[in-house]
Specification:
The protein has 496 residues and is α/β, with parallel strands linked by helices. It has 2 domains: 274 residues, no CATH class; 131 residues. 22% of the residues lie in helices and 34% in strands. A hairpin with a 6-residue loop joins strand 4 and strand 5. Helix 1 crosses helix 2.
């Protein structure tokens, strides 16, 4: 594990903790220690062991032999498999087979929980460092610590025309494993220090797009003057320390899962509310204080109705200009209001045929969380506006036909890829943008028909792609997300 003594961290959104049930799989023991710098021989040995394990899982005869020798659990009934990571059983439903056939990918060898943990290991949102840009030399804020072996460019240099990822293109060597060669390409191609796209004066933001004057924000889209917040999508304005809003939030502070709110503080599960303080699960309310489970009310304190004048007098008595008094009110909110409120088993609204939590305007989706306009999807976490997807994390906004991916927006038919915006027809890509028809590429911008960053004509591209997939099937590499060992982060830096 790598640690740095010089890092800038942001580990929360003020006092209020996000406590709702989310699909957070437990850390897998074998992922706890990840070698960050390995010799070529060590890396080949690691890949060989992983490939052998995968091939044995995909070969029923080999699996039976492993069972007889005590290496894996007992053979499972049809439709169930034994996870090759944690050894627990997991089911593959009939509709899952249909999805795998549609994308022409093999069945997974890891259970859903382990697959999610593997994707967690690729997301560092907020552990920030300073290191010089490897192109211009200026100090840059980045998610890559100075002791990482990668080339890192500041955003202006990375997006500039001063370099091209195709300069690092190479031939594929069929005598070696895919992941070994891909790791070598990762070490050569420059990485962007922070992924902030189409934004102004928002240098300290990551996984963000179309923002202005934002600071220490993560997964912000279409926001202005938003600070220390996470997962704010569409019309976030002048707010701080907030989590998860996609229908507008303005002049608000310490709000979690709040939609269409204005001038609210310390709120949870608020919708279309104005001037509500220390409130939980209120709808269409205004000027409410220390309230819970109210609908279309105004001028209420502790769920008791007051006149406009009485309410104003009572609010003055609370002394909101005192920090000490504010701390007392917050403790009352947590100790008195939250315990006595009524809670639904799951927050699911305007949706049909779904399971999970925090699901809105969705249908035919299961095991999905923080989902809005999600359709025909499964095992998805934070998925606004997606269709026909499975096993993906932090992705969306007009995204379709995605499998085993992390951090995508505006994508179509993308498989086994990480941190790619505005693409179509990608497989096994890392940090590629505004491209189509790529396989095994790193850091490509506006590219097409590239394999290992090398440009081909369409016919040659498709022929070579098919040959590489056949090679990966033989080595047991095809059909799984990137191994944790290829992640550019130490596990302690990630969402895992």
């Amino acid at each position: 594990m790598e640690y740095s003594t010089k890092r800038e961290t942001f580990n929360g959104r003020g006092q209020q903790e996000k406590t709702r049930n989310n699909f957070r799989a437990p850390s897998v023991a074998k992922m706890a220690e990840i070698p960050r710098q390995m010799t070529g021989a060590e890396f080949r040995n690691m890949i060989s062991g992983m490939n052998a394990e995968t091939r044995q899982c995909q070969n029923p005869d080999a699996s039976a032999l492993m069972f007889q020798s005590g290496q894996v659990g007992a053979p499972t009934p049809k439709g169930r498999r034994s996870c090759q990571n944690c050894k627990s059983e997991f089911a593959i439903e009939p509709e899952d087979f249909d999805f795998y056939r549609k994308l022409d990918v093999p069945l997974p060898t890891w259970c859903p929980e382990c697959r999610q943990v593997r994707r967690y290991a690729w997301r560092n949102e907020r552990i920030l460092y300073r290191r010089p840009c490897d192109l211009c030399g200026k100090s840059a804020v980045t998610i890559y610590s100075p002791n990482k072996p990668y080339k890192v460019y500041c955003p202006p240099c990375w997006w500039s025309d001063k370099w091209t990822a195709q300069d690092y293109g190479r031939e594929f060597d069929f005598s070696r494993s895919f992941f070994e060669q891909f790791h070598e390409l990762q070490l050569q191609v420059p990485r962007i220090s922070l992924l902030t796209k189409n934004s102004v004066n928002s240098e300290y933001t990551n996984h963000c797009n179309n923002n202005k004057n934002c600071f220490r924000g993560y997964s912000l889209f279409e926001c202005e003057n938003v600070l220390y917040s996470n997962n704010i999508w569409q019309n976030g304005r002048d707010s701080m320390e907030c989590y998860h809003s996609d229908e507008g939030i303005e002049l608000s502070y310490e709000c979690v899962d709040c939609f269409g709110v204005y001038q609210c503080q310390y709120g949870m599960l608020l919708r279309n509310c104005t001037d509500c303080y220390y409130c939980l699960d209120c709808r269409g309310c205004s000027h409410c204080f220390l309230c819970w489970n109210l609908r279309n009310k105004q001028y209420c304190i502790r769920n008791r109705q007051y006149t406009k004048e009485e309410y104003a007098e009572k609010i003055q008595e609370f002394g909101l200009d005192s920090y000490a008094r504010r701390a007392e009110l917050y403790q009352q909110y947590r100790g008195e209001i939250l315990p006595q409120a009524l809670y639904r088993f799951a927050n699911i609204e305007r949706s049909v045929g779904v399971s999970g939590n925090m699901i809105f305007n969705s249908k035919n989706s299961h095991h999905v969380f923080d989902a809005d306009r999600t359709e025909d999807s499964k095992y998805a976490i934070i998925s606004p506006d997606v269709k026909d997807t499975m096993d993906a994390y932090h992705y969306g906004f007009a995204t379709e036909l995605v499998y085993e991916c992390h951090a995508l927006i505006h994508c179509y038919h993308v498989l086994f890829s990480h941190l790619c915006y505005d693409n179509s027809n990608l497989e096994y890509c890392d940090g590629c943008h505004n491209s189509q028809d790529l396989f095994g590429c790193v850091g490509v911008k506006q590219g097409q028909y590239c394999i290992f960053n090398k440009k081909y004509d369409e016919r040659s591209y498709r022929e070579l792609r098919d040959k590489i997939i056949a090679h990966m099937q033989q080595t047991g590499e095809y059909g799984e997300f990137f191994p944790v060992e290829l992640s550019p982060f130490g596990y302690n830096e990630t969402q895992g």
